[in-house]
Design a protein that fits this description.
Layout lengths: L7 H4 L4 H10 L1 H21 L7 H24 L1
Helix pairs in contact: 2-3, 3-4
């Protein structure tokens, strides 16, 4: 598979170490990060035609990714 854009380390490069640490020590953060990763992969598969989905489904996935990213960003700011 090709490079998947929007990985957390790319979205928050200044917080790479904090992301890793929180994945290990905060179950809620780990769940958010895992879901973010899964949604990002699904969007990438859809965009590349590997697993096409309806337009509204892809839109819903993008909205979910944004909600997750916002919550992750808030956690990174307060960690």
């Amino acid at each position: 598979m090709t490079h998947t854009p929007h990985e957390l380390a790319e979205e928050f490069p200044e917080h790479k170490d904090r992301i890793h640490s929180l994945k290990l020590t905060d179950a809620h953060f780990a769940r958010l990060a895992d879901e973010y990763h899964s949604v990002t992969r699904a969007i990438h598969r859809s965009e590349t035609g590997v697993e096409p989905v309806a337009d509204h489904t892809e839109t819903d996935m993008r909205k979910r990714r944004m909600v997750l990213k916002d919550e992750i960003a808030a956690m990174l700011r307060t960690a």
